[in-house]
Amino acid sequence: MMSKVVPLIQELIRNKCVNTGAPDSGHEIRSATTLKKFFSNYGLDAEILESRPGRASLIVRIPGRDSGAPSLMFMGHMDVVPAVAEHWSSDPFSGDVRGGYVWGRGAVDMLNITASQAVGFAEAYAKYENFPGDLIFLAVADEEASGRLGARWLVENHWEKVKTDYCITEGGGFCIPGKKHPGIAVTIGEKGVLWVRLTARGVSSHGSLPYCSDNAAVKIAKAVYRLNAHKTRMILTEEYRDFIKHLDLGGVSRLALGNTVFLDAYLKSLYHRNAGLARHLHAISRMTFSPNVINAGQKLNVIPDEGIIEMDIRMVKGQNVEDAYREIHKALGDLASQFKIDVIDFFPSNVSPVETPLFDASQEILGGVYPEFRPVPNIFSGVTDARFFRMKGACVYGFTIFDREMTFSEYSRLLHGTDERISLKSLEYTCDYFFRLPEVFFRRIYSAENQHF
Q: The pTM is what?
């Protein structure tokens, strides 16, 4: 299968489906066309759906033999984030193979999985033709800009075409050290995301007369400092505690990570040894603030009468918009009354159960590659398109099988990073996982029901 997956990921990288967040960026129709042609070689008919011209998603559904059987979906996205070419050691859209890696923007996020899903899906069809339940491949647009023109649009407007009971997508597969056994992350859920705009008013006046002026830029500067310095309450959820059980830690370290009194001090020391893990543990143990867009003033000699902060807030399970507002007011203190808060977007935290045939099937396949590894349920600090399907009742995991070099820190570094690349060994494991998954998944269901597969 490597002879098929490598050329496919190279073409997807070279299609340069860069999503800047602008509605007319992305141009995923390029990669949708590539995939449609790929599937046609297997006699599979792919449907392309456009939310607007050029913003294309692609779906292939192989009907199951049993109308009552659950369905299984492979979901990937085709868009990638921008890349600054001068910061890379080579063309970020070359898709070159060198040193045992495929190089290029999207190699990790997530064209390696999208290409491997396509090949595994097609090869499973070639071998088995169909399964008890529907097998679905979905490649979407606009994941890198919240899915409004991709998965979100499909779920809201074409649910009958994309509905599924189980789904595998991005967000897992990286290696985690374990106390007894090393682990590999299976993302079972995501933190909630809230994007807000904070607006402060001032009084416009001449820049040469700053004494006792009402300068909105000064309010913004003070607010950013306070928001960034604010410490939110730690909430160690069941999912957080399950995750730390699998870490390769001594008793004292494990105690510190499970105690809100000592946690932050331990994370400071951990950061110097494993920055990626420390940042993740910090993120999944509390609500986080990140003031990322700051605007005030339009002319050098004019004191601004308005300032704006756009802030990214991520919330743990059980938290909502009202909880975030309370934390913002605590952080701003006496400045709070001078700011108006507007919600840009909100999506709650979402989690899928672990006791499922999809989790068991993934564990079985993992055991054939890494017998000593164990799947580790994980909460993702970011968001993926999985959330739209979880809210419709589907069980969704972020999972694949990477090589051992893809640790948590390495994954975090390459994600949207410079010189993004994926190893050929990781592609081999990932492709084989998606090829084997349908057979193992449906076999486990039918074996559990004492039926013949």
A: 0.93
